Amino acid sequence: MSNSDTGALRLAVLVSGSGSNLQAIIDRRRTGELPVDITAVISDRPGVYALERAAAAGIESITVDYRAIGNREAFAATLGAQLEALAPDLVVLAGFMRILPAALVDRYRGRMLNVHPSLLPKYPGLDTYRRVLAAGDRWHGSTVHFVTPELDAGPALLQYRIAVGPGDDEATLRARVQSGEHRIYPLAIRGIATGRVVYRHDGIWLDGRRLDAPVVIDEAAACV
Ligand code: GRF
């Protein structure tokens, strides 16, 4: 159900904050590397920088203000109706900080992606940088995964991996991981848009083969 004029995959991008991943998608789209239409950017908060990025790129933006709505069910109903009207092929969570109810996630099973700053299944949830440092882990990174109702637990497609060094702190880890996200998120979306990546009930398929584990791109070797 891609755009019938252009053949491009129709995205709806959900944001809550800075929108640097949104920007990476916009930039790759602009260079022609990403055959997608961004139908709208939806924020759960007014005034966030991601909305300015959308405006600067001429993309429609919608705010479904969680605080003003006041409860999870009504928020999900409003968001669900907005998504239904947009009819996206893929819902892209890009720094979106709300946990969505199972019914809404199920409606987009296989058509909703998230990027999470850890090497899932390690460290679902918040504060991943602090937790990695506290545990003395040798590796950290980020994962692009399909969204299922269990938090940060859906099938993983692509990971960016960095070695944690003795000089790293939360800020350096975040900067390195996020610059990796800006590479792997557009890459994952491109895989779906071009049909190389297919989500099926039995797993994720890449180039006609079922993935046993996510594809891993190492920072040291990254030139995507
Ligand atoms: C990203 O690092 C992502 O892993 C997490 O939220 C962060 C915010 O990113 N889900 P962005 O700048 O708003 O895209």
Write up what this structure looks like.
- With 224 residues, the chain is an alpha/beta fold.
- It contains seven helices and eleven strands.
- α1 packs across α7.
- The longest helix is centred in the C-terminal third of the chain and has 24 residues, at 170-193.
- The two termini are 28 Å apart.
- The mean pLDDT is 96.
- It binds 5-O-phosphono-beta-D-ribofuranosylamine.
List keywords for this structure.
single chain, 224 residues, alpha/beta, 7 helices, binds 5-O-phosphono-beta-D-ribofuranosylamine
Instruction: Label the overall shape.
Output: globular
Low-confidence stretches: none
**Beta fraction of the residues?**
25-35%
Count of β-strands: 11
Bound molecules: 5-O-phosphono-beta-D-ribofuranosylamine
Cα separation of the termini: 28 Å
